[in-house]
Amino acid sequence: MAMALTSIPTKNTPLPSTSNFNFSRIPPEAWKEVLNRVDDPQTFHNCYNTCEVFRDLLNIDRTSRLFPLVLPHIHDYLSEKDIINSRRVCKRWKTGIENHLPLNIPWKNVNPDDFIINPVKERWVFPLTNTFYKVSQITQFLTEMENCSGNPFPTRSLLFYHLLHPEPNANGAQLEVQDRDELFHAFRSLLHKFGNEVWSFVFITDTDNPELLPLHAWVQQMLKLLPNLKKLRLDNVGDELHGLKIWDEGWDWFQHLKPLPLHLISLHIGQFYSSRVAGSILNAVGGQLEYLGIEGTVIEEEKYFGTPTHPWFIREMPNLNELKITNLNFSRGMSNEISLLKRLARCRLPNLEKLSYAPKRHAREGQIPFRAVLLLMNQFATTLVELHVPFQLRRMVQNEDFEEEDDPEVMALLGVPSTKLKILDISYSMVDHPILESVLNKCVVLEKVRLQKFQMVRSRDLRGVNRNFVLRNEVRQTIEKLNGLVKSTKFKSIELWNKSPERKLYTWRRPLI
Amino acid sequence: MALVRVISSDGAAFLVSQRLAKRSGKLKTEIETFRKSSDNSEAQPEIRIVTIRAEILRLVLQWLQQHQNDPVLPANQNEQDGRGDAEMGQSQWDRDFLAPMDLGIVMELILAANHLEVKGLLDITCKLVESKITGRTVDEIRTAFKLKSDFKGNEEEQTRLENRWCVEN
């Protein structure tokens, strides 16, 4: 007999309450069926910790299922060869390596300057270990991989360094001069076959040779072939900015990119790309970004960035956790940095925890007053955990007779507490400033101060003096002074970083009681 | 002696001295938070660790007890290269402590040491897992971790093909 239709639960029929249900009545076989379907390693770990019954059911798979969670802790100890070898152990280890290995290999550590300093690195890198110097090598790779339907990139990361140098590199190897179209065709073929597997894509252009610059459409087409992209870095080497002209041709190119990379959470845009490009990308996917790195030259173009009346102005990035503005150059006007800060302040960033606001590495003009640091601290006072502002200090504001400690506006800024700031990264030149004590103590949970660009400013004349003795003495005085200034009970450490070469000179840690 | 009650995910309670507990960065923060929020300075803090089961929590506390007089390693020790000081810090006691353990337990200890911010234990357990992978063949790794290959059809051959290109270049 057919069942009455009324007995079939509909969307509107409330399901029976499970609040009084005794889950221990479910037989282990049924739990086994359920738990076998748990793919996420963290959920597995949670289930495993729940009770003895679950542990008995899950024990067999434990080392394969926990591997993805353990991998981020052990990968530093493993060689590339061992990591690649581990992909063959079982399916869970393979997917664990592909999906859980930190993507910092080409992402965090690639500094375009390194390519100039060390020509050996002039290459396209397919991490972990693959290097191509010629188009023919890509062609050969594609031939070898013809029957491969999987993922040949263990970290799901791809770096294209735009290799068009006719000069031999440091090893004497003559690099092949490429035809631009042939090169792009090879890139496109590669991405056409394996673009789905790539999560992190770095494209570095050499702007010193305008004849060989990539076309605007290249990047657009390459991005179309990367539908699962999570991290994107568009960067350049070379100081020439011919690219700005090329990139001025289209504004809305990213907006029209179909499909949009909906998983993109991390974006770095180098100085080659104009603010139009940055604005176009941010307008399309800014709302989903968790990290944004942007060059000063892009953000300084007042015309587009932070102009509220402009249609491409970015008003809100609700998910942004880290903002890194680099290569700032404030040589063009004393109050330029303040106007930039005001534009930044118009953008709503309710979850910003890390902010870097850094000058050009070798710029003499990389100087700001303390007022600018305070503006940054106050702008994000309720969310900011780390602030990096390694500028040299410019004491005077507006005119030479005006000290910051006498400025009522600066005094008002000092009154706003920074409730979450734990790490403050400033220039060593700020150590002697009279308001430093107030700045440090407005950060009520401050844990670490990092002093950048340390140099022996107190002992300029070192003739006939033991340099190491003076250095030790100056480091000791600095540490003592800073320790005397900070009143936060959580304060744990001070780092001193040398100016040139840039390296950590000394770390002080509060002794444990 | 001031004590703290630490409770595992499966409800087992461990009563340990606060001095010992504070050698874990996580427990130290929890104790300080409890102190700030509690009106009674004599009250005994109770900390529930929902991600660590009793057997693993007992091992972590046992390791802390043994190393209670060691200097505490900062969480970001050797931050330049990301490695810890496993070899430097490993004693004969540590080797005897880890020797009878199944690698599944060691993996759970890695996750527990990371969660509780116990740098020394994290270092030695990571090093142990690494030693079971480094320089070993795929079959040797499977044996060490008690795993079976679950690749089907030509999947293993496919992986070999993907890897060959990585390794050979």
Number of strands of chain B: 3
Widest β-sheet, arrangement of strands of chain B: 2-1-3
Order of secondary-structure elements of chain B: EEHHEHHHHHHH
- H/I helix tally of chain A: 18
CATH architecture identity of chain B = 2-Layer Sandwich
Backbone structural class of chain B: mainly alpha
Indicate the mean pLDDT of chain B.
84
The rough form of chain B would be described as: elongated
According to CATH, the fold-level topology of chain B is Potassium Channel Kv1.1, Chain A
Q: How would you write the strand order of the largest sheet of chain A?
A: 3-4-5-6-7-8-9-11-13-14-15-16
C-alpha Rg of chain A, in Å?
28 Å
Number of helices of chain B: 9
Overall shape of chain A = globular
Q: Biggest protein-protein interface?
A: A-B, 55 and 52 residues
What proportion of the residues of chain A form beta strands (DSSP E)? 15-25%
Q: How many strands in all of chain A? A: 16
Give the CATH class of chain B: Alpha Beta
**Unreliable residue stretches of chain A:** 1-6, 104-130, 164-175, 242-246, 396-401
Helix % of chain B is 40-55%
Domain F-box (chain A): 64-97
Protein name (chain A): F-box domain-containing protein
InterPro entries (chain A): F-box-like_dom_sf, F-box_dom, LRR_dom_sf
Domain SKP1 component dimerisation (chain B): 119-166
Produce a short descriptive summary:
The complex is a heterodimer of chains A (513) and B (169). Chain A has 513 residues and is an alpha/beta fold.
